[in-house]
Design a protein that fits this description.
Elements lengths: L1 E8 L7 E3 L4 E10 L11 E9 L1 H39 L6
Antiparallel strand pairs: 1-4, 2-3, 3-4
């Protein structure tokens, strides 16, 4: 991964992810900006922080993030089940449904 810093470009590249055959560009903090004074443009100008990855490197990054999210989701699911069971116990303690 290379951090290319703050860059400016057209709306076509001012998107979060640009996938090319030999590189993956990740853009963050995308903002529309005024073009530099004295520089005429044919379209809108955007500013963004740009990172570039080799395709295999980006696939590995996404795979690692996916694994981390799965682990976190499993933990949250377990916590939710415990909370639901505790609520059932509280409900039963206060008498449940009255007929």
């Amino acid at each position: 991964m290379k951090d290319l810093g703050i860059r400016q470009g057209s709306g076509a590249f001012a998107v979060p992810l640009v996938v090319m055959p030999d590189a993956v560009y990740v853009h963050t903090d995308i903002q529309k900006v005024e073009p530099p004074e004295g520089m005429e443009t044919s379209g809108e100008v955007y500013q963004y922080h740009e990172y570039i990855y080799e395709p295999d490197e980006y696939i590995q990054l996404i795979g690692n993030e996916n694994s981390t999210l799965k682990e976190k989701l499993a933990g949250v699911s377990d916590e939710l089940t415990s909370t639901q069971m505790a609520l059932v116990e509280v409900y039963e303690l206060i008498g449940g449904i009255e007929s």
